[in-house]
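Let's practice the habit of predicting before peeking. Look at the sequence and jot down your guess about where helices and strands might fall. Then scroll down.
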Amino acid sequence: MTTYDLFIANERVHAPHQERFSSINPYTGAAWASVPQASDAQVADAVATARHAYESVWRKTTGQERARFLQRLADLMEVHAERMATLETTDNGKVIRETHGQMLFAARAYRFFAGCADKIFGSTIPLDQRDVFDFTRREPLGVVVLITAWNSPMGLLSNKLAPALAAGNCVVIKPSEHASVTTLEFADLVREAGFPPGVVNIVTGDHRAGRALLASGRVDRVSFTGSPGVGRQIAAEAGRLLIPVTLELGGKSPNMIFEDADLDKAVVGALAGIFAATGQTCIAGSRLLVQRSVHDEVARRLVERARRIKLGNPLDRATEMGTAANEPQFERILQAIENARGEGATLATGGRPAHGPGLERGFFIEPTIFTEVDNRMRIAQEEVFGPVLAIIPFDTEEDAIRIGNDTRYGLAAGVWTTNLSRALRVSREIHAGTVWVNTYRAAAVMAPFGGYKESGFGRERGVVALEEFLQTKNVMVDFSDDERDPFALKT
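Done guessing? Here is the structure:
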């Protein structure tokens, strides 16, 4: 078993009698890594260290200097992509054909924001007063807390860390207690890239560590990815402390197939939307809306293909679907399946723990499809975060839009059609932060990502992500010789 320590000021840190917990490989069920539970004092030290690094060093670096650090980090992510992918797959059960790509995606994010670091501009503002020069500066916030989820630790971290560092902030990172190993390994890459001590700090642990981060001293922003329930708690506490937050939460995304769609491509897109990553992704197309005239054909094809999905060792590149990431999530998925059956949805395939050679000890669940789903059922309204698809028929374009928007979430949506006008109409009317047309579960570091409604607020990726980590200062210079009235506002 590998033992890890916290990362503060570019050093591995532990305390006498450090509380620890084990990381469990969801494929084998074996404990394989020992991870520290950060104490309140260690969390406070990480925040104070980040503050000192910000005030003494990092806020004084140029954009060009920050870019060089980020470029080196991108290089190292590429060099270590296979090793990091193996670790992440071992930690959360996601197939390596996905985790390896996510490491390269993370590298691309660091490289993209390296290109942004020296292009953070203010503006000049023409005023009504001829002898007054007014301009703005875009400045970093200071110290930001980055909290990531267990389903894609390195990919989710890059969404936050790359723009935060490019903008000139120092950070304290807290990964999920269910998948902390790659983030702790990432610390070595940060140090090798040459970042000054204290710019990047990592603390691990459960909700206690998260609570301590908010209570530890002045924090200038929190960026959180995870469940809506925890997001609400963080937002409430941050609001009490007047700390701004960025929240990337859950989804119940509609993936809509119209009768004029290329069904071959649409079926593949539907599979990718729900069974890739074992459905453990916030953008999962877990509600498949299918126009009634092609409903039976689409359902038939999906059931047939779902039954052929290859489950097995996530480290085997032939494996198509891995495990639930941990035992609590495994149990939650199975309970959602039972709830759907109890509410009258028709189980078309799956619905049980998966068994067979090589699956004996892992948290495997059969790819599951429900038909005859009413959008009012819990299976259509509650996020399952697993390989469970609800197929819902619709008649008209208006029906599809109405059903698609009938959810408290608004993270993503898919539209499958060969009619350009329909594609533009539906993408305009759907309440979601991302709409894919004739594709699904596709990402680019240059494209903004974030949700509407209870899927969160704020944006990651793309140039707009920098705004989450910057603040605007106005500077007004009066170079006139006019004598003013000291008791009246000068306008």
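How did you do? The first helix runs from residue 40 to 56.
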